[in-house]
Amino acid sequence: MLRPENRNLFLDSMRPPPGYTFDRAVGTTFTLDLLSLLITPLAFTFFDWEDRDGRPTAEPLALLEALRRHASHIHLFCQAGMINVPPADKQLLPYIESSVFEVHAPKKGGLFHPKVWLLRFVSDDEPCMYRLMCLSRNLTFARSWDTVLVLDGVLTDRKLAIAKNHPLGEFIESLPGMARHVPEDVEGTIAQMAQEVRRVAFEPPEGFRDFAFWPVGLDRRYKWPFPEEDRPFLVMSPFLGDWFLKEIKQQGQLRFVISRPESLAAVSEESLEKVEECLVMEEGSALDVNDGDAEAATDGLDDDNELAGLHAKLFVMDEGWEARIWTGSANATRAAFHNNIEFLVELTGLKSRCGIKALLGGDGSQHTLRGLLVPYEPDSEEPPDGDDEARHYLNAAREKLIDLRLEAHVSVEDENQYAIALRCPGNHRWRPPKDLSVKAWPVTLQHSAELSVGAKTAASFEGLSLEAITAFFAFDVRVAPGSGIGGKKKVDPLRFVLTLPLHGAPADRKDCILQSLLKDQDHVMRLLLLLLAGESLSVSDFAMDSVHGSVGTATSFGVFDTGTLLESLLRALARDPTAIEQVANVVDDLKKTPEGQQLIPDGFDEIWAPIWECYAEGRK
Q1: Angle ∠(64,36,329) on CA atoms, nearest 5
Q2: What is the C-alpha separation between 541 and 552, in angstroms, rounded?
């Protein structure tokens, strides 16, 4: 049922169904890598976004066009203070600033931990479609064993909601209320999707007959999705807690526990008593990752240790001829079901296809999950000290910084230079203890400034280019040497990004970014060809051919005759009119400034004018 060779890339799962185009998306994640979000819109474009090795392309013009089309229609909610610090000098980051909303779980001490995407697709000839993706992984570049469940369904025209969809609709509807500020238009979009998804006829995956949605933590009350029946149970979770294992044992037969060695070592022997087998990933069966989703079994806080191998969360219960599987974000800990916001989907099917035995497989080959697992052997040595004191100290400082509600204010220094001041609004103040050092910087820069969080202006950055202005600010919080915190061990700094309200930024920032990437007429022509090439285009091949001046992708506009360009435009006009719209958007943006007008290839307007006239006439 779960075959390791059946592997899907995250972006593959987001691609629109045949005949459909992307309309909008709402996503959730615990930790966030901004570069992962930056490439997500590539999944919705018509061209091939992978290179020859199957990795997302780094072709900047492809990224630019995907972001211009889709970034404003992606709304992502993540745990406040859990955005990873990206490499500096990423010019395209301003395109996703309005896509990110940092949130807190309603219950004190809880985490916002779900990993869910709800995608809306539209078609000219077919009814609207929705796709729900329920994952165990965050939106990062982590390379570990994870799961993703994909449910597709058509939006029906029925007046009454489908009862089983109400929990999903309530979960989507609740997201703006957990963020500090969500624009009205985004709230309206999410409200519409929350209402529509209640009328979507989702189809269960192959091999299953039914499903149910289990949001956890929305009403601050404890929710237990597992039936209290004396049935065989399998738990797969990278993090374990004594409370959870004892609860399962009290109501059923805990047969198998699959986890990480350090998590199994941290629970009591009593919790694992009468468990038929404890299993771990065989060394080398998966790559190390740096995901940041390290939920401790005791308190639900994160750490920055690398995760190795297993990151999937699955709970399986055999029930007569049938079996039930719960998959999603929740770890086997008390924090997951008492404190956090989580999301699980329950699937029901025949035990022979999706039960415990079917999940594991019995032949021990690498084509079964069992073939990747080995029995857990307890280490005689004491588990390493997790340095809880230092970790709690730094995490408390992060929460104080989040509570300051810092704002970024942009001012003009001269014609081409700007300054940004970080300010604490109102009476929000915090004086960090002397044994803490706090630094901040815009993620577009490589230098930082000491944060004076006891003052109204906490930090300032001067002499910035327009491209360096951003709402994403990185923070570095570290313990001063000799403070005694963490004992004699070196305490690693805590680094994270916050999305700050940005005031006074020039309205034409994105237009300037467009012009900075389209450095000359050659680059403009490459982008136009990218838009007109159609579904057969491989972006990586296009980038390579452009460099070598292959036929159809020459290195200067002068190599093209007017007939070639006209043929490409006419083909798009007949087969894919949306490509004409995209060309028009680029041309209109370039014409907003004198510098942009100079980038339009010579002779383009003479070819473009009749094409646009035909397109406009056809739209009447």
Answers
A1: 145
A2: 12
Give the DSSP letter string of 149-200: EEEEEEE---SSPPGGGHHHHHHHHHHHHHBS---HHHHHHHHHHHHHGGGE
Measured in whole angstroms, how far is the alpha carbon of residue 163 from the centre of its chain? 29
Strand order in the sheet with 116-122: 100-103, 74-79, 21-29, 116-122, 129-135, 148-155, 200-202
Crossing angle between the packed helical segments 184-196 and 166-178, to the nearest 10 degrees? 170
Paired tokens of 185: 């238009």
What local confidence, expressed as pLDDT, does residue 60 receive?
Answer: 65
Identity of the residue numbered 128: C
Q: ∠ at Cα 215 (213, 216), nearest 5°?
A: 140
H helix and E strand count, the chain: 18, 25
Using the predicted structure, report yes or no on whether residue 226 has a pLDDT greater than 70.
yes
Q: What is the dihedral of CA 216, 222, 223, 224, to 10 degrees?
A: 130
Q: Are strands 129-135 and 457-464 parallel, antiparallel or unpaired?
A: unpaired
Say how far apart CA 479 and CA 483 lie, in whole Å. Answer: 7
Q: How far is it, in rounded angstroms, from Cα 326 to Cα 316?
A: 7
Residue 164: both structure tokens together: 């089983």
DSSP 587: H
Q: Which tokens sit at 215?
A: 């949001």
Hey, what are 281's tokens?
């990933």
Q: Are strands 342-350 and 208-216 parallel, antiparallel or unpaired?
A: antiparallel
Query: Among residues 451, 410, 340, 376, which one has the least CA distance to residue 113?
Result: 340
- Mind giving me the DSSP string for 368-430? SSGGGEEE----SSPPPP--HHHHHHHHHHHHHHHHTT-EEEEEEEETTEEEEEEE--TT---
Q: How many CB atoms lie within 10 A of CB 14?
A: 20
Summarised one tens digit per residue, pLDDT across range 455-481 is: 678 899 999 988 889 999 999 998 877
The string of pLDDT tens digits covering residues 88-113 is 667 788 889 999 999 998 888 899 99
Q: How many CB atoms lie within 10 A of CB 433?
A: 11
- Asked if residues 590 and 515 have their Cβ atoms less than 8 Å apart, the reply is yes
Q: In the beta sheet, which residues pair with residue 347?
A: 211, 325
Question: Is pLDDT of 381 > 60?
Answer: no
